[in-house]
Design goal:
GO molecular function, one term: ligase activity
InterPro entries: ANL_N_sf
Protein name: Phenylacetate--CoA ligase family protein
Number of domains: 2
Keywords: Ligase
Order of helices and strands: HHHHEEHEHEHEHEHEEEEEEE
Shape: globular
Radius of gyration: 20 Å
Oligomer: single chain
Largest sheet: 11 strands, mixed
CATH superfamily of the largest domain: ANL, N-terminal domain
Strand order of the largest sheet: 4-3-5-6-7-8-9-13-12-11-10
CATH topology of the largest domain: Rossmann fold
Length: 318
């Protein structure tokens, strides 16, 4: 089942052409509009970026760069066009992530694709469990509603009421961070709810790690299939990469983010199948384009077509 079959099953040649066109456009946009990139690229002629391979001519962007410069040094749009600012981190390490209305529409598109890849459809009854209301929670709720699924509103942080809602309304899909799901499991045991005999068939774990070590444990305690919604808060909302029913890696939304894997030793791009650091470039980001962002995540890259039918590149984690 696909959300956007044209993109998710696009030929490799067509995808590379789309990525090239978007890369050239976003590089020119960032150079013209972002004071950070204008300064960082002062000795680079952006007209030289004529192919995807030319991206190697551009320096990396790091988390420290974002801490020091975001949002105002990174902004490529006036504040009058910014509809949301999302604060990430704590204390002096805080990063402000800005979004235009168009950015939020694209975030919804990515999240809907990720939910559909995990089996969500108009028959799904979804409960988004959270200890508190966040931008990610709002984004997930909107994406589910766009798909036509039924989203159940529940009190944040009230585990007994969340369990009661699951039981009474026959919730089929849970979305939350791994820690909150585990709290729900513990509360169910204490309150004599048998989660395995209840209606939940699918669990989405929304968190900043590409892989959750708790996924197998959660699946065994609840009995449903578990999917990770990979989020890099500095770049975008949940769904940058997602698992499908084949469970053979995580599909990168590569029409929106161009992936590279680089050597930890020298920062050079390495071939598919070799372990290195994931580097992502936002290809369509109006408010804050981020070019060649070093994620710090170790992966291998795989461009082979998945058995689910998707041709989107996949990342595999150790």
């Amino acid at each position: 089942m696909y959300c956007n079959i044209g993109i998710e099953t696009m030929s490799r040649a067509a995808m590379r052409q789309l990525q090239k066109e978007r890369l050239q456009k976003i590089v020119k946009w960032a150079h013209e509009k972002s004071s950070f990139y204008r300064a960082q690229w002062k000795n680079i002629n952006v007209e030289d970026i004529q192919s995807l391979d030319d991206i190697k001519k551009l320096p990396f962007t790091t988390k420290d760069d974002l801490i020091a410069n975001a949002p105002f040094g990174m902004l490529a749009m006036p504040m009058s066009e910014i509809v949301r600012l999302h604060m990430i981190g704590e204390g002096k390490k805080t990063i402000a992530r800005a979004y235009t209305a168009g950015d939020l529409e694209r975030a919804t598109e990515m999240t809907t694709r990720a939910l559909v890849a995990g089996g969500v459809d108009i028959s799904s009854i979804i409960q988004i469990c959270s200890g508190h209301l966040t931008a990610d929670v709002l984004g997930l709720q909107h994406a589910a509603e766009v798909l036509g699924a039924t989203v159940v509103s529940v009190p944040t942080g009230k585990l007994e009421e969340q369990l009661d809602v699951i039981n009474k309304l026959h919730v089929s899909t849970l979305i939350s961070d791994p820690q909150h799901i585990l709290q729900l499991v513990v509360a169910a045991q204490a309150l004599d709810y048998d989660l395995q005999s209840m209606s939940v068939k699918t669990i989405f774990l929304s968190h900043n790690g590409i892989k959750s070590n708790m996924a197998a444990h959660i699946a065994s305690r609840i009995g449903g299939r578990v999917f990770n919604l990979y989020s890099i808060p500095e770049l975008f909302t949940p769904g940058i990469a997602c698992a499908c029913n084949a469970k053979k890696g995580y599909h990168i939304q590569e029409d929106y983010f161009y992936p590279e894997v680089v050597s930890l030793a020298d920062g050079q791009v390495i071939r598919d199948g070799r372990m290195g650091e994931l580097v992502l470039t936002s290809l369509i980001s109006e408010a804050m384009p981020i070019i060649r962002y070093r994620t710090g995540v170790l992966v291998t890259l795989d461009h082979e077509k998945c058995s689910c039918g998707r041709t989107l590149a996949r990342i595999h984690v150790p």
